[in-house]
Amino acid sequence: MAKEISDLTTIDLFNNEKRPGRPKTNPNSRSVQIKINKRNQVKRDKNNGLKRVEFKVHHSLFEQLEQLAETQQVSRSELIEALLIESLAAHVK
Q: How far apart are CA 91 and CA 83, in angstroms?
């Protein structure tokens, strides 16, 4: 029986052909890997004294934060932290 390029029904005929994409190196599924990575990130942040804060802002404010962060060459997170520290310092005086 000859091997046809279009015939993909018998896997044993195509064992030596490489599949596109990166080979699987982790036995866990992608969703499990994401959960493990997130858990490890939370542990690292906790050990570094960081606490996660989440809030919603209007799109126009978000764009302003993005532009200011890019101008100052810092991440948006670092910019928001600096603005909060500055605002709290002004209120303490």
A: 12
Mapping DSSP to helix (H, G, I), strand (E, B) and coil, where does residue 63 land? helix
Band of pLDDT at residue 67, cut at 50, 70 and 90: very high
Whether the model pTM is above 0.70: no
User: Which tops the pLDDT comparison, 67 or 6?
Assistant: 67
72 Cβ neighbours under 8 A, 6+ residues apart = 79
Distances (CA, A) of 93 to 10, 71, 82, 85, 86: 76, 29, 17, 13, 11
Matching residue, tokens 């997130």: 38
What is the distance in angstroms between the CA of the first residue and the CA of the last residue of the chain? 87
Buried b (16+ CB within 10 A) or exposed e, 3-31: eeeeeeeeeeeeeeeeeeeeeeeeeeeee
Which residue reads 């890019």 in tokens?
A: 70
